[in-house]
Specification:
D-Maltodextrin-Binding Protein, domain 2, Iron ABC transporter substrate-binding protein, 10 strands, alpha+beta, signal, single chain, 8-stranded mixed sheet, two-stranded parallel sheet, 366 residues
Length: 366
Amino acid sequence: MSRKTWLGIASVSALALTASMGSAFAQSQDLIDAAKKEGQLTVIALPHDWCGYGDVIAGFKAKYGLQVNELNPDAGSGDEVEAIKANKGNTGPQAPDVIDVGLSFGPTAKKDGLIQPYKVSTWASIPDTAKDADGYWYGDYYGVLAFEVNKDVVKESPKDWADLLKDDYANSVALAGDPRTANQAIQGVYAAGLSAAGGDAAKAGAAGLKFFSDLNKKGNFVPVVGKIASLTQGATPIIVRWDYNALADRDNGKGTNIDVVVPASGVVAGVYVQAISAFAPHPNAAKLWMEYLYSDEGQLLWLKGYCHPIRFNDLATNKKVPADLLAKLPPAEAYAKAVFPTLDEQAAGKAAITAGWDGVVGAAVK
């Protein structure tokens, strides 16, 4: 594939020259002009209360004057990948330009030819372990699985995964997605399994399925997608979800007393990744979006939404993280036991959980 095709830019010598300079193309006027000519960006699965995406999208629109077409905010990672597949020949509004998916979905999307490479100008400050060497996908932010608890309903918050099996939590516990397709839910099952298996990653998938099977048989599992509305209404007073989502709900709970608990064991850190569709109808807008997300400005907007941006260490080293943002995060010791599963471990866990959920747990999450 030629570099010109790789960049998805028309045969304009000035743009080709800039592209050959790599990072010099970042947010250049050439890229901005090319993106504005396309007119819009199509994103998918970006709820405004997830990781501060409301402010991120608003900031991008204000900075560059592009429209942002937002598809299916509640979609899971699997749905995002399927949306690319389903719209390969479609340049209309249902074709996503970019995706934000769980780490394990990046390599598979690359293998299936669904995403295209692009290295942002801040590429060097993204840890090597959190990016594809060829630029097909790269980590954007991370968090840990936590318990979000409605304290107006649940008087004593669970401290660890095993606590969820107690009689006190009858008809109370939900996942924040369908564990057959949504990365957040898959990782929730994996984290429970890692705790039950004593930290043995090889057994985490199967152990997680058994844990949720027991939870379901006990009558503690609620087979609906847990959201802030169901939490505040008391329908799902305990939700297993990423800490950044739970912390955002804590601030915006509209009077509900919300507790956020990082479990004592099975503390699984999840890295999400960005990628550009190989069939993006607006490839230059997609590249400009990536440049914005990985700029200091974009990274700090994610941190404002309680996500640890992938360039956090670089920002902290250069004293670019405002003290007021750091003060709102949980204490560092809450994350001391955090485990970052390898790609192979995630892939094995994902395969076991998605394939075995119906047979082992038998609860259709809707």
